[in-house]
Design a protein that fits this description.
655 residues, mainly alpha, Rossmann fold, 3 domains, 6-stranded mixed sheet, 28 helices, 52% helix, vWFA_dom_sf, DUF7788
Length: 655
């Protein structure tokens, strides 16, 4: 195999498949209410403040008075509680407000402001959105929206950071970006069959015309009916095939046109092809030398020939040209491109994928006995566990038993906490649930090796505004914090809606803990101040010294708190600080981590507020920022800590 070399962008044009060339030429000629359970009473721990919390926190309290007013730097939450318009720092606003589900237009607006204020920091925050390791947020869609903004305004910066971008997420991010650029921002992900059918019928499956079709089918002899049915099926198949051919031709035509006519797109395409070619060439050399332990995943994420990514980006042709240059001046370019693509498949992709022991290879071959379960990635394990149980139950169950006993490991790094909980609750299959249990335990164990949360408790918003995925994330992260907290706070969580409740989570397994969480009190309100009113009330009633106060409170919420302050335009945090000071606990106000889980405009504090952090997203990774014994300096300092890793410092601004 020829060594991969960076091809001169002007040395060739992509030709694509024949239908793309013909179409391109022609075109040139002419986008919840569940049963509530009372908070579980806990046994005495010997820790004065926690025992007082257990005894007194869940007692009912009278609702506070409310008021209204106005202030130029503040606004109101959706529930009319005063809040800040902005943190005062555009980069921090981007860090705090962008969460999974944030509209791309909002991502673009926030990024534009952040970039105007501090381009290097803004770029690192974009990388932090995608980061699946370290302190990254694992927000793929948010990252794609930000990357498309970068390509539009700063294309060289995006393209010249392609290698680092792939390192933050995975190599597949680059073909996905090329696809979206060529197809108006549309993803390769498509809705399922049922969703498509429902969408095509106004939300209901079509049944009209069934009577007419039945009557028509009954006409004639049985032979005639069979012949008519076969003819109808052939017609439908031919129509569908013609539509597929047309879509493929149009997709390839767009790819050729974008590459040959758009310099910014071509530059990103070339950098992507360079990276894949370089990695594949090195991996092929290692494979030939028998060095298979440290192969990259380039063969896994390089598009397969004629796959969706290949048709929409023609990336296989570009990579093949770099790996296998045309050494014959007599071979027509179109014929050479076809041969190079085939050689890419046979000489690089197929042998490397087999060497990587990718489960997809063995699944496609139905060679279930060859699946190496210890090498199955976390997301693949979640997605394929049903297939493994169906086709290779004995080996798979034996593997799970070995994981449980500690003899083998199971991957969990790329999964988000709520994804594990959701995969657990999808069905009651014992082995399926065993996968979720083991992945959750691996996640907890990996986090514990980094440290624990000292004198810390989670507050989970379970109000009506959190309905859906944000509530699932709130509960899952609350469970995780309760597992990572040091004694005596381990296993405790506070929920707040109409009234806050302190819960001692019961159960030894994830299944039992999830079942307990399902029975916790749920409501429609978000009385945030009531949580700290109860904490303060407990401390005062028990006459606890300030040093016994809980040190840190992590608040998983959408920040849309209810109005609860007696003073006009006093934010919830300002009210909490005032109440603690009046009660003699002014120096013991708990550090608060405001963890945003939903697209909203509320900002609880400003950037310089001491003892407070503003973070967001669905990932467990940001918890790592709070596993040490150091105090929280300010929201800005926590943000800077999140992007201080080497992987973010390597990102550079070029335009």
């Amino acid at each position: 195999m020829a060594a991969a070399a960076t091809a001169d962008a002007s040395s060739y044009v992509l030709v694509g498949p024949p239908e793309a060339r013909h179409a391109h030429a022609a075109a040139r000629a002419t986008d919840a209410a569940a049963p509530a359970a009372a908070a579980t009473a806990a046994e005495a721990t010997g820790e004065p403040f926690l025992d007082a919390m257990d005894a007194g926190f869940n007692k009912p309290a009278a609702p506070p008075a409310t008021n209204g007013g106005g202030n130029g730097t503040k606004t109101l939450t959706e529930k009319l509680s005063p809040t800040f318009v902005s943190s005062g720092d555009p980069c921090l606003d981007f860090f705090f407000h962008v969460v999974p589900g944030t509209p791309s237009s909002t991502v673009s607006s926030l990024l534009a402001s952040a970039w105007a204020a501090d381009p290097p920091t803004a770029l690192r925050l974009v990388g932090n959105l995608r980061g699946v390791r370290g302190s990254g947020k694992s927000d793929r869609e948010g990252f794609y929206a930000a990357a498309l903004w970068l390509h539009d305004r700063h294309p060289r910066t995006l393209a010249l950071n392609a290698r680092h971008v792939a390192g933050l997420g995975y190599l597949k991010d680059l073909p996905e970006l090329l696809h979206r650029l060529a197809h108006g921002g549309k993803s390769t992900r498509t809705p399922g069959r049922k969703a498509r059918r429902a969408a095509g019928s106004g939300g209901r499956f079509r049944t009209g015309g069934r009577k007419q079709r039945t009557e028509a089918a009954r006409a004639g002899t049985s032979e005639e009916r069979v012949a008519a049915s076969l003819a109808r099926d052939r017609g439908l198949a031919e129509t569908a095939a013609a539509a597929r051919r047309a879509r493929r031709a149009e997709s390839a035509r767009r790819a050729v046109e974008m590459y040959n006519d758009d310099p910014a797109y071509r530059f990103l395409h070339d950098r992507t092809a360079d990276l894949f070619a370089e990695l594949l060439a090195e991996d092929t050399r290692k494979l030939a030398a028998g060095e298979t332990r440290d192969l990259s995943l380039a063969a896994k994420w390089c598009p397969s020939l004629d796959s969706c990514y290949d048709r929409s980006t023609l990336l296989c042709e570009a990579v093949a040209r770099r790996l296998f240059p045309n050494k014959s001046e007599f071979l027509p370019d179109a014929h050479y491109a076809y041969r190079a693509r085939e050689r890419l498949r046979k000489a690089a992709l197929v042998p490397l994928r087999r060497a990587l022991k990718l489960p997809e290879v063995f699944i496609s071959e139905k060679a279930w006995g060859h699946v190496a379960y210890t090498r199955v990635a976390s997301v693949a394990m979640k997605n394929y566990r049903g297939l493994f149980l169906k086709h290779d139950a004995d080996r798979f169950n034996a593997y799970l038993a070995n994981v449980k006993s500690g003899k083998k490991k199971i991957a969990a790094g790329a999964l988000l906490p709520h994804e594990i909980v959701a995969s657990f609750s999808d069905d009651d299959n014992t082995s399926n649930n065993a996968v979720a249990e083991l992945q959750w335990q691996r996640m907890v164990d990996d986090m514990r090796t980094l440290g624990t949360l000292s004198s810390c408790v989670a507050v989970c918003d379970v109000s009506g505004s959190m309905y859906g995925v944000p509530m699932d994330v709130s509960v899952a992260l609350g469970l995780l914090v309760s597992e990572l907290s040091a004694d005596p706070w381990r296993g405790r969580v506070i929920t707040f809606s109409d009234a806050p409740q302190l819960h001692a989570i019961t159960g030894d397994t994830l299944a039992e803990k999830v079942e307990f969480v399902k029975t916790m009190d749920w409501g429609m309100n978000t009385d945030f101040q009531a949580v700290f009113d109860k904490i303060l009330e407990v401390a005062v009633d028990a006459r606890l010294p300030p040093e016994k106060m809980v040190r840190r409170v992590l608040v998983f919420s959408d920040m849309e708190f209810d109005v609860a302050s007696a003073n006009p335009w006093e934010t919830d945090y300002e009210a909490i600080v005032s109440k603690f000071a009046e009660a003699g606990y002014g120096d013991a106000v708990p550090e608060i981590v405001f963890w945003n889980l939903r697209d909203s405009k509320s900002v609880p504090v400003e950037a310089g507020q001491k003892g407070v952090a503003l973070v967001s997203g669905f990932s467990k990774n940001l918890l790592k920022l709070f596993l040490d014994d150091g105090g929280i300096v300010s929201p800005r300092a926590v943000m800077e800590k999140a992007i201080a890793g080497k992987e973010y410092q390597e990102l550079a601004v070029f335009d």
